[in-house]
Specification:
315 residues; alpha/beta; Quinone Oxidoreductase, Chain A, domain 1; Rossmann fold; 7-stranded mixed β-sheet; Alcohol dehydrogenase; GroES-like_sf; ADH-like_N; ER
């Protein structure tokens, strides 16, 4: 099979397409023919060995000290079942499924083997591109907004980085939960963010976010340019600060009304997000769709910091 592989850390050009052995599903696994996979900021950070402050040593131990331990990147994917392991009973070849592979990665390939319990069925009303696109940003936004901040009617939510993969989902989910949303983005993306449900937008190039007099019940930072101190100054008395891209220091100090960490990958969350996409509650924003052969260009777009929503590749 063909896959996008890396054998060293570096710029987007280190990613190349090569022929590699097709994985064989173990007894409890499913072999999926990948139809679409997201290229995310996490893929970019791993490829370039660029991790949030303080995490470099830990990340290298996980992903490879001198060179990448996982040659094939990619986590969020959607596709069709090719074969199933001996213990798999409720999934059959031909079924359309999607999911995330976690630290195993491997989704930037024609085929990926995944434990059956980590797969969700893709609704027919949702395209493979939308299914792959919604999972990474959607699960993160859902976990922090619903599970950590209990966002609900009447609350005010600030989304810093509202036009990215996480931010576009966060704006829509917060609106869905009944909150009033303010999105921080560029002037060029203000219309998009407003169309997703933000009642107000702030242009980060023109306005100093940390100097605003406004206060919010929830501040969700997807960019990493808010510290605990600067973020807390934006909160109401009972507000919650959600640091999705926090440094090691901020992560260790996160307590009380500050939350940091990594969102879990749960099938029930995949299923909820897919239902919201299928019924039109969530629009999956896709910046570009590339063929696998253009994987380096996909990484360059992520690295540019100018992508809007999601980058997807089709193996």
């Amino acid at each position: 099979m063909h896959a996008a592989v890396i054998d060293r850390y570096g710029a987007p050009e280190v990613v190349r397409v090569a022929k590699v052995p097709r994985p064989a599903p173990r007894a409890g696994e499913v072999l999926v023919r990948v139809r679409a996979a997201a290229v995310t900021s996490a893929d970019s950070r791993i490829r370039g060995a660029r991790f949030p402050g303080g995490f470099a040593l830990f990340a290298r131990l996980v992903f490879g000290v001198f060179r990448p331990r996982r040659a094939i990147l990619g986590s969020a994917f959607s596709g069709e079942v090719e074969a199933v392991g001996a213990r798999v009973r409720d999934i059959a070849p031909g079924d359309e499924v999607c999911g995330m592979t976690g630290a195993r990665l491997g989704a930037h390939a024609e085929y990926v083997a995944v434990p059956a319990e980590k797969l969700a069925r893709k609704p027919s009303a949702v395209s493979h591109e939308d299914a792959a696109g919604v999972l990474f940003g959607g699960t993160t936004a859902l976990f922090f907004l619903r599970d950590k901040a209990s966002v609900g009617p009447g609350m005010s939510v600030l989304v810093n980085g509202a036009s990215g993969a996480i931010g576009t989902n966060a704006v829509q989910l917060a609106k869905h939960f009944g909150a009033t949303v303010t999105g921080v983005t560029s002037s060029g993306n203000a219309g998009l963010v407003a169309g997703l449900g933000a009642e107000r937008t702030i242009d980060y190039a023109e306005d100093d976010l940390t100097g605003t007099a406004d206060r919010f019940d929830v501040v969700l930072d997807t960019v990493g340019n808010l510290s605990i101190a600067s973020g807390r100054r934006l909160l109401t008395a009972r507000g919650v600060l959600l640091l999705i891209v926090g440094s090691l220091g901020d992560t260790v100090r996160a307590r009380g009304n500050v939350v940091a960490g990594v969102a879990p990958e749960r099938v029930r969350d995949f299923e909820l997000l897919l239902r919201l996409v299928a019924d039109g509650t969530i629009t999956v924003v896709i910046d570009r769709v590339h063929d696998l052969g253009d994987i380096a260009e996909a990484h360059r777009r992520v690295d540019s910091g100018r992508k809007v929503g999601n980058i997807v590749v089709r193996p």
